[in-house]
Amino acid sequence: MIVYWILLLITAFVAYISGSISTQRLASRYVFHRNLRRLGSGSLWLSNFRRIYGIPGFLKLLATELVKDLLPILLGGLLLKLKGHGDTGMAFAGFCLLMGRLYPVFNRFRGGHGSVALVIAALCVNVSVGIAAAVVMAVVIWFSRYLSLGTVAGAVVVIITSALVVDSSLNLRLCIFTALLVLLRHVPAMIRLLRQKEERLSFQQDLTYKLDDAF
Which of 36, 90, 136, 207 lies in disulfide reach of 77, CB 3.0 to 4.6 Å? Predict the structure, then answer.
């Protein structure tokens, strides 16, 4: 039992820290040796990175973000697999990853929407859940032009589809808790949306900063 708790603590720590780390900040400082705060719009988010380093640099950074989100989930699966609960390890790591994305310790607990991390976490638990969430999220964002609404819709789909296809009760609870965490984080955005004060995406202009902009 002690070993099991140690593995859970390691998984939680690695996944949360990974979610909290800003890949843009690290790449800008240690790879490109330039401070994003002093360039472009002064933002650390993906839009400013794209303005400075172009589409190729943006795509490389986005790929790095995806890998960074995926690795701690896989690690959680490998660690808990030692105790026969690999799937639970990935589900738990996904929850901790989203916690880091939404409430990053390195940015005064002010995070982004977590939409990409939510899809990756769902895919690792159940491919059908992840695909359903990604499709619904993309459709809602495309037609509504609200990233927050699309993320909320994706979280709701995760809850519904998990209840239908996830067999393990523990994994199901972890999926639901992860989706509820996203929904809770988006309460202010939904209030702004009801008041018609939520900013909409513009596909004719730069929209990449919306992928992880603090809100």
Answer: 90
Q: Is 76 left (phi over 0), alpha (psi -120 to 50) or beta?
A: alpha
CA–CA gap between residue 60 and residue 54 (Å, rounded) = 10
Do 52 and 132 meet the contact criterion of CB atoms below 8 Å apart? no
Alpha-helical (H) ranges within 103-146 are 115-125, 127-144
Among 1, 175, 162, residue whose Cα is nearest residue 88: 175
Domain extent for 21: 2-211
| Successive 10-residue mean pLDDT values, the chain, 215 residues | 87 92 70 54 50 65 80 92 88 93 82 83 92 94 86 94 92 93 90 82 49 48
Give the distance from CA 46 to its chain's centroid: 14
Whether 101 contacts 19, CB under 8 Å = yes
d(CA 209, CA 207): 6
Residue 199 tokens, joined: 């900013």
